[in-house]
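Thread: Newbie trying to understand structure tokens

Hi all, I'm a second-year student working on a class project, and my supervisor (Dr. K.) asked me to get a predicted structure for one chain before our next meeting. I've only ever worked with sequences, so writing a 3D structure as a token string is new to me. If someone could post the tokens and maybe explain what I'm looking at, I'd be very grateful. Here's the chain:
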Amino acid sequence: SYTTLTSIDATYAPADVKVSSGSTNTNYYRSATTKLNYFGGDLSIATVVLNVKYATPAVVALYPMSLNSTTTSITGGTVNATSPIPLSGAFNGTCVVTADATGSLVLPSKTFSNVIRVVTTQTLIASSLGTTVYLLVYDYYSPSDSKAPIFTINTSTVSSGFGVSEQKIVTRSE
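---
Reply by user tm_fold:
Sure, no problem. This is what the structure looks like when written as tokens:
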């Protein structure tokens, strides 16, 4: 499940919303009338522990969103790894968000109709570290039930000289 708090954390300024999914993954956003910006967070992907700070945020939603709408943003900032060994450096990347499907979502406890699926892909390249972070998120929204995603599949992959680490988190809102 997710925990959402209004946040004032100077590290992620001007983010004003903190979303945590578990004890090791925290993300920082700033919401406005027309868009939702992502400013980074603390991530654990298998044995890799990262802190990602966006100087140029990822635009993860541009409102209003409808089927086949796509938003692309160029991102940049710093990435700090604390495990398996401490490393830090600048990154550049892209974020692409597409509302690619509508229909019904059938879960064991409930069927949601009028669902829109939003796919977010981010590629972050820290050339000086020889590291690439790839994020793929499928968010399923039911606008009549909640503004937050009702179901999320989040796949994170870190590729570096130490190998490849991948993690998949599936979350269902209650």
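A couple of things are worth pointing out once you decode it. Residues 73 and 95 are 5 Å apart (CA to CA). The first strand starts at residue 3 and ends at 6. Feel free to ask follow-ups in this thread.
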